[in-house]
Amino acid sequence: MDAIQLGPLVLGWDRFAAILSVVAFVLVVEVIARLSRQPALSAWAGQAVLWGFVGARLGHVVQFPQIFLAEPWLVMAIWQGGFSPVGAALGVGVVTAFALRRGLSFVPAFGALWVGVVLWFALTLDTGARPDIAMPDLTLPMVSGAEFAFSDAPDQPMVINLWATWCPPCRRELPMLADVAAAHQDVTFLMASQGEAHSTVAAHLDNAGISPDHMALDPSGALARHYGTVGLPVTLFLDAGGALAHVHVGEISRAVLLREITALHR
Asked: Which one, of 192, 181, 127, 174, lies nearest residue 157 by Cα?
């Protein structure tokens, strides 16, 4: 499972698992704090969540200094994803070490942390291989007037982005995707508009100053059905053999995009 839909909200499964694990951790701490009458546990839990989050984000940022130094405001663009489990562990560890020195009870604190961590591992553990989804036997019209046939795709990794002009996160990430696509000739990029007419897509690209290169039209949403995706935007990463290697649900950052492209070449 790559995403979960809660009404109109679509969350990547990794984000949903993290949120659920944090909620479970906080609830367990609150129950223990009330039963044992140790309010210090509640205060520690709040600090652990805050600094775990900060550590997770900073741990990701330091992995891509060239990107975040060029555009520092992207550090705050947390909706694009990009978090480090190691950074989160360091943040929680530092806060917990200080709290223990001030008299925090170790056993209940460790027990609550264990619940959160085990739940996160259980939700994100890949218990089986990802289903082998072959490339679709599909030919899509390109905005440029040409066609893209998956059967003729180059023997190299591929990034497929599903988007639409009415989707604000799609519009935000599209210029960056086009920029990365132009700089990576060793990866096939295909940005496929879902369910829209050529005139609509062409007008948006022209107004935004985005090249029509790599831009395809998928008027019937065939790619979304083939890969079983929900919501927009969605970015699919296929290895050189055409197998689906990773799915990113929601807006993607340049750093996460480059990280997943690097993984495709390993």
From this structure: 181
Which residue ranges in the chain fall short of pLDDT 50?
127-129
Given this model, what pLDDT does residue 127 score? 42
Q: Which domains does the chain carry? A: 3-124 (no CATH), 139-264 (3.40.30.10)
| CA–CA–CA angle 75, 80, 84 (5° rounding) | 65
Question: How many whole angstroms separate alpha carbon 131 and alpha carbon 136?
Answer: 14
Kindly report, residue by residue over 213-251, the tens digit of the pLDDT: 999 999 999 999 999 998 899 999 999 999 999 999 999
Please name the residue that has the structure tokens 């200080």.
98
Q: Which of 71, 96, 93 is CA-nearest to residue 82?
A: 71
Q: What are phi and psi of 244, to 5 degrees?
A: -70, 120
Beta strands in 180-263 (DSSP E): 188-194, 215-218, 234-238, 244-249
Instruction: Evaluate whether 258 touches 180 at the Cβ level (below 8 Å).
Output: yes
Q: Which residues pair with 238 in a beta bridge?
A: 158, 244
User: What percent of the chain is modeled with pLDDT above 70?
Assistant: 95
Q: 230 to each of 38, 121, 147, 210, how far by Cα in Å?
A: 44, 24, 25, 25
Contact indicator for 168, 204 with CB cutoff of 8 Å: no
**For residue 262, how far is the Cα from the chain centroid?**
15
